[in-house]
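=== RUN LOG ===
request id: a7f3
mode: sequence -> structure
chains: 1
length: 387
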Amino acid sequence: MIGPGGSDHLRPFGGSGRDRPTIVRGEGASLFGADGRRYVDLGATHGVGNLGACPPDVVRAVQRQAAELLYLGSGYPVPARDAFLARLGALLPPTLDRIFLSNSGTEAVEAAIKIARSATGRPRVVAAMRGFHGRTFGSLSATWRKELRAPFEPLLPGFVHVPFNDVAALEAAVDGSTALILLEPVQGEGGVHVADEGYLRAARAVTERTGALLAFDEVQTGVARTGRLFAFERWGIVPDLLLLAKSLAGGVPIGATVTTAEVESRFRGTHHSTFGGNPLACAAGDAALAAVARDRLWERAERLGAIAHERLAALPPERVREVRGLGLLIGVELRERVAPLLERLEARGFLALPAGSTVLRLLPPLVIEESDLRAGLEAIEAEIGRG
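=== RESULT ===
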């Protein structure tokens, strides 16, 4: 029942304090406001839109599935889920052959923590400083940023944070009580910091030595974003658990925790998600992965990312500390706060993201037209140049 104030009194909980354009339609990297104005997506979809807005293959798959079967509990096989699992499995190393489906990245992380603790019988989770893994209690416990954690403490016990890319600190933190090392190959929310190959190899080695498990959180880096289908392929280091979400179903909510048969054999207890693996999300996921593979979008991300990196590296050093990233996951660390720059870019028709208070983060759709990407880079150059 709507109260006397009508529906206008309702507002999103925790929403932005400033007015933003109302987006009513999207196509590829183009987003259209209620006033008809076109905006270029350089990150507004938060890494979900690798295939752009309303990818045609995904839209058709969702329409077909919605007319056939919207939902069925996971205890019953359905063709859409079988097809999605087969397609994803064909893209993964053969050892990663067990999957738990959920609805988001934070749920994928929660499942990984439970699986690791149960399979090893150990409590300790080692994660990285600047890392971001989600906002539910387990994933927030693995997340480092104090301002995200403090309002909800005490969080779960047993979580330890070590400096990213510090091999000695990582090795010192992992012992016989460690269930899991949880790392992002590229820290997206934490400022777009790329893992060193030696650091990831050390993580793999220390887990093999101690019996802990290694998880790569590829919620943001997965599905062709970094110039590889999955970021771990760049180094050839296969984790025990791979966490996926965001663009995995082309814009439809989904999460996946992928692990090995050996880890599953040691799991005790139960874990379940009512909507995880629902037919609609799986149909979207099957279509999304098919489109990514058909168009080899990881190659496009690598090529366009190289163009962006070259242009951004030439920004004036008195204004820019560093440019980081892989593929089309790019961070520009400024010598000032990023919020004013984001507002000026929005006024020009380009929507980007922060990664902390001083980092401009670019996560454009992998299908973005090169001309739109170059126009966005020109706008960034102009706005950083003017201050």
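=== NOTES ===
The two ends are 49 Å apart (CA to CA).
The first helix runs from residue 56 to 68.
=== END ===
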